[in-house]
Amino acid sequence: MNDVYNVAVVNQSSAAQCMETQGPCDNCDQKCLAKYGPSVHTQCGNSQCICIYECGQPAKTCSGGGGMCSQNCPETCCDANCAQKFNGGKGYCQSLGNYNLCQCEYPC
User: Fold this and answer.
1) Paired residues of 52 in beta bridges
2) pLDDT, mean over the chain
3) Cβ–Cβ < 8 Å for 90, 51
4) Sheet harboring 41-45: ordered strands across?
5) 107 and 66 in one domain?
6) Which pLDDT belongs to residue 8?
7) Could you say which of 7, 17, 25, 84 has the lowest number of CB atoms within 10 Å?
8) 79 and 92 in contact (C-beta within 8 Å)?
9) How far is CA 94 from each of CA 14, 54, 97, 100, 101, rounded to the nearest angstrom?
10) pTM for this structure?
11) CATH number reported for the structural domain that contains residue 106 in this entry
């Protein structure tokens, strides 16, 4: 009696790749390295920094304050302030009562 076996081999060493934009191309390598570690690859397309990394557990995200949003400092200003204040930081404006706060999120 001859037995026939079917065997499937899954190459687990080739994990799926993910991409995330990190704003302007300035210091792209440093931004991606800080967020995803030494195995990250970087690309600069359409003036945007793109991090290419192995998908996995997402990095923990922390929050912080970036000051106030106003006509003089709209969402783009808030985002720039957060990027300067926190490594890998991104910012957005959020209204709380009579205040328009700049909220920052960054990997921690």
Assistant:
1) 19, 41
2) 83
3) no
4) 17-24, 48-54, 41-45
5) yes
6) 28
7) 7
8) yes
9) 40, 32, 10, 6, 5
10) 0.49
11) 3.30.30.10
The total domain count for the chain is 2
Give the pLDDT of residue 1: 47
Which mean pLDDT values do the consecutive 10-residue runs of the chain (108 residues) have? 34 68 88 84 90 81 93 94 93 93 93
Burial class, 3, CB count within 10 angstroms (exposed 0-12 / middle 13-18 / buried 19+) = exposed
Q: Give the pLDDT score at 90.
A: 94
Cβ contact 12:72 at 8 Å? no
Measured between alpha carbons, how far is residue 51 from residues 5, 42, 74 in Å? 42, 5, 26
Residue 48's region, left for phi above 0, alpha for psi from -120 to 50, else beta, is beta
Residue among 12, 57, 49, 55 nearest 32 (CA): 49
